[in-house]
Amino acid sequence: MSFAVSGPAAAARSVLSVTGLPVGSRNSLQLFIEWFNTTDVRIAAVGQIDMSTAQPFSHQVFRYAGNCRHLTLNLRKVTLFDCAGFAALCHIDDRCHMADVSWIVQPAGCVSRVVDFCDPLRRLPLSTGEHVSG
């Protein structure tokens, strides 16, 4: 796994490959971490969040958003999302509640479909607006 991460004060965009598989391989997932200030972070995912990437995905979210107060998960460029991805979002939700971190998910269509099916009570904080920054 290779990555380059800058500190929160730098407000720089960082690239992280969470699977250790080469980009372009069948089950690739990349994360882009962007700190806006010392408490607000956006993590964008590009690729697939499935059984092979869901656990590393949630671990990396915790690793790079550990000291934030507001987390935005941009999943608009996720191309495949399954129930393991949903379980990862539930785990992130639990940890955010315990740490008093506000968070929101900006979903791709495939993410919305799985969450709609698996979360009928709408407990996960999905963005429903058309205009989303970033």
UniProtKB/TrEMBL annotation:
Name of the protein in question: STAS domain-containing protein
Residues covered by the STAS domain: 47-89
InterPro entries: STAS_dom (IPR002645), STAS_dom_sf (IPR036513)
Organism of provenance: Candidatus Mycolicibacterium alkanivorans
SUPFAM superfamilies: SpoIIaa-like
